[in-house]
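Reopening this ticket.

The earlier resolution said the output was attached, but the attachment link was broken on my side. Pasting everything inline this time so it's all in one place.
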Amino acid sequence: MIPHPQSPYALTKLVGEYYCNIFHQIYDLPTICLRYFNVYGLRQDPDSPYAAVIPIFITRVLQDKPPIIYGDGEQTRDFTFIKDVIKANIIGAESDACGVFNIGRGENSTVNDLAKTIINLMGKDLQPEYQPPRPGDVKHSLADISRARAIGCNPEYNLGNGLREIIKRLTSVS
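Inline output:
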């Protein structure tokens, strides 16, 4: 897709990619840019202003509170487990490849399915709480990972496996 940034944050990421491309063209400096899609893993701060949905949902369910879903929950995201991101960084750093590569699973899940999966994995009897949609939220996000796969970035964790690993770690520590 042709990039069309919808926020100053997205614009700065695109500008960085353009800089890398120019350095490659003018100075023959090999550059690689990895675009991460909805990364999740242990040690994410659910209270951060930049908190992602997964640590927020897990924290609420741990507290026997329902996950809060903004909108109808049918928005989709391509959730990427941190171990797949680390693997992609190593492959990218060791590769001779240049350009922009999407790092994700290449599969999307609805926020409703995410909430249900977390609730079920944690053995709770909760129903999500729905609130009005947030302005500016993207409805659907899905990484085309074909270029990343071509250099050996093949995700190993699906959403369920990644969530199981996090929840197992969190509940065994409690």
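Reporter confirms the inline version is readable. Residues 1-30 form one domain. The longest helix spans residues 8-27.
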